[in-house]
Amino acid sequence: MIVRFGILAAVLSAAPSTATPPSAIPALRHAWPGDALGRVEGLAALQTLEIELLTRDSATLALDDWCAAHRIDAPGSKIVADRDYSVTKAPTADQRRQLGVSDQEPIRYRRVRLRCGSHILSEADNWYVPSRLTPAMNAALDHSDIAFGRVVQPLHFRRQTLSARLLWSPLPIGWDRGTPIVGATPTLEIPEHVIENRALLVTPTGTPFSEVVETYTRTVLDFAPPTLK
């Protein structure tokens, strides 16, 4: 089901985070205050990023702008994709249905970490239909680490959100009704993953050619909080 902006508040409600292995994401250079103001600012930053991601067709370009606007890395840094060749995931029957392909149609898989300088901002699983891309696009995807969104940009694709959720919130559910913050700390303890989005990429005529699951890391908040600037 495509997320509609009228229910954005419900989409952005935080789900309980699951246990993760020891962090592979670098520690943050900037600490966010653990007081009420710092938590509100942290939540507002995550919601702002999520709105950017949900209203842009390319997550890569949205992260380009986020990285530049918040000076997360050196000026001029652009998002690059680091391929992970050790992971393979076959498409599920539901994914084939979403992509509108038969059981025999080849689907390729690509896992990347989208990085701005030294900051890994997201990890993405991507299933795509090579027969719906050009030979040049398939060659670039097979033999380079370039981000998928940059490769297929000439298709002028649109993004259809299937699901979107915050994996973590600095404020408890019901905070606006006076629910106390339990276990408050001087600085926010931000988990490894903070947002998960799932989407279809479709051509201007509505033909789907890719399904992507994007998991955004805590480094999207690696900038000085507004009140500390």
Automatic annotation (TrEMBL):
- Keywords on record: Signal
Origin: domain of life: Bacteria
> Any keyword Signal?
yes
- The secretion signal range is 1-19
InterPro entries for the chain = Chorismate_lyase_/UTRA_dom_sf
Q: What is this protein called?
A: Uncharacterized protein
Naturally occurring in which organism (per UniProt):
Sphingomonas albertensis
